[in-house]
Amino acid sequence: MSNTIASLADLELELPLRPITDDLSAFTRSLSLSGSAEQGYAAFAAQTCAVGDVASRARGYAEEIMRFLALADTSSKSQVALFLDMLIALSLLNTASTIAVALAPPRSAADFATRQRVLVDVLAAIGDDAGFANLARKAFFHGGDDDASGGRHDLRAASVPGIEDTRDRIPAAVGLEQGMSLAAFLKDQAPAGTLIERAALQLDDADGFAREIESADLDQERLDRLQRAHQGACLLATADLARACLIAAVSSRNDHLGDRVADLSRRLGEARLRDIVAFAAQAADRLSDLRRMQHEAAGRSKLL
């Protein structure tokens, strides 16, 4: 991608469209549907997430957001309004990747360090909003984090692959030159309500596993599997609730789903998962501000 262009009007937009997938969506799609629900959830909880790759995409999206804002300063208001879908989509992708880093259970010292490096970036972006910063710290807290030297961890932005190297449902970095694909991605989101109801079903499954753990006479192997299954169901429910917050924020529908999300999040077993949903809801408010700004700009243009 070129960084020498003078304004948004100088962008050379890429065609054909490429598939774009956010990291929370990819996180949930790694659930295996073969075998029993117990086996699938347990296997999901045991999976290793490529936290470093997700974090690199988050950094890449953030850099493209800053690039958009820099070009907006030298662009006409009408051009900025025309391209606001690109900014909103990049912000959605960045937030989804950030939440996926917080959500994925860390498996190594490198994972812990990456989480801390991403948290540093998040806190810098939040600025002086103390309440939001506190939510971010709680969302990224995980036992052992304090031992990670996150400040010394080098995190590089992911590079945008060639269109021939992109795959459907596989997350990849994108830039402003993929603006038409970003706009299509933004319009092609599943309804937030669908994700919320799927999360409710996953929490029902988690409750069922918890009851079995408490009531049954289990051997150690089955107990371990049920505990992993409970964790897997809760991880998936958290991902869906968090993503629902983000999608609702950028959707053209006027669904008021916050109370439903809050009710379901209270059923999550771990405090850190509840904190992640609360962080997602707060981040969604900032996405809503971008969408509101877009609507106001469109309204002003109609009056001219």
Number of helices: 12
**Morphology call:** globular
Strand content: under 5%
- Helix and strand content put the structural class at mainly alpha
Distance between the termini: 35 Å
The pLDDT mean sits at 91
**What's the Cα radius of gyration?**
20 Å
The largest β sheet comes out as: none
Number of strands: 0
Number of domains: 1
Give an overview in words:
- It is a single chain.
- The protein has 304 residues and is mainly alpha-helical.
- The chain has one domain.
- The protein has twelve helices and no strands.
- Helix 1 crosses helix 5 and helix 9 packs antiparallel against helix 10.
- The longest helix has 33 residues.
- About 2% of the residues have low confidence.
Key phrases:
304 residues; mainly alpha; 12 helices; 0% strand; globular
How is this fold's topology laid out?
Elements: H1 23-29, H2 37-46, H3 51-72, H4 77-82, H5 84-103, H6 109-126, H7 130-140, H8 179-187, H9 192-215, H10 220-250, H11 258-265, H12 271-303
State the gist of this model.
With 304 residues, the chain is mainly alpha-helical. The protein has 12 helices and no strands.
